[in-house]
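Supplementary Text 2. Reproducibility record for the structural model of the 70-residue chain.

All settings were left at their defaults, and a single model was retained for analysis rather than an ensemble. We include the record here because the model underlies the residue-level annotations in Supplementary Table 4.
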Amino acid sequence: MIYLKENMRYLRKQNGMTQGELADKLEIKRSQIGSYEEGRGVPKLSVLKQMADLFKVSVDELLASDLSNE
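Retained model, structure tokens:
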């Protein structure tokens, strides 16, 4: 199962960020963050890598682990 949208929202909130703040850090539009969190879009690999680095998790963890239960 893919947990990207759940993990994005969870990690963003755990770090006290708004969608706009996360978008600014990743240099993408806020609407893209909303799209990813709602499961309507999928980020490019480069954005996934940036996000994983930002939240100090691996891309694998970001995609395949339910981080809210760890």
